[in-house]
Amino acid sequence: MPVKPTEKEEDYFIRKEFERKKKREEELHKHLAAEEKKRLKSVHYMRCPKCGMELIEIDYKNIKIDKCSECSGIWLDNGELEMITKFDKPIIAKFLKMFVD
Q1: What does the pLDDT read at residue 101?
Q2: What is the β-pairing status of strands 63-68 and 74-76?
Q3: Spans of the chain below 50 pLDDT
Q4: Strand 55-60 to 63-68 pairing
């Protein structure tokens, strides 16, 4: 004679099945997000965030500064602005003058 599961047992197994499916979906989304991030990086790498044109990398006192070839925007990577602010005032003035058209 088959044993009929109790309501609590049935709820338990339904919840476990849901958690298993949810985990599988989260892994799929995580993988897709990583793939999308990689694709976007390849499309946007060394492109101006403002106009989309190519960035030209300028090395100034061991700081890589990106300047747009079209709109002349200046872009700094994480931590580079902090490095520039540690320069003496005359060096900062020369730095700024270098980018004015």
Answers
A1: 54
A2: antiparallel
A3: none
A4: antiparallel
pTM for this prediction: 0.54
The helix (H) or strand (E) run that includes residue 54 is: none
Rounded to 5°, the CA angle 93-95-97 comes to: 70
Q: What 8-state DSSP symbol labels residue 43?
A: H
Domain coordinates of the chain in residue numbers? 1-45, 55-99
Alpha helices by DSSP H, listed for 45-88, are 80-85
Q: State whether residue 57 is helix, strand or coil.
A: strand
Q: Is the distance from CB of 46 to CB of 54 less than 8 angstroms?
A: yes
Q: How far apart are CA 29 and CA 9, in angstroms?
A: 30
Dump strand ranges (E) for the chain. Answer: 55-60, 63-68, 74-76
Q: How many CB atoms lie within 10 A of CB 63?
A: 16
11 CB-side CA count, 13 A: 3
> What is the chain's length?
101
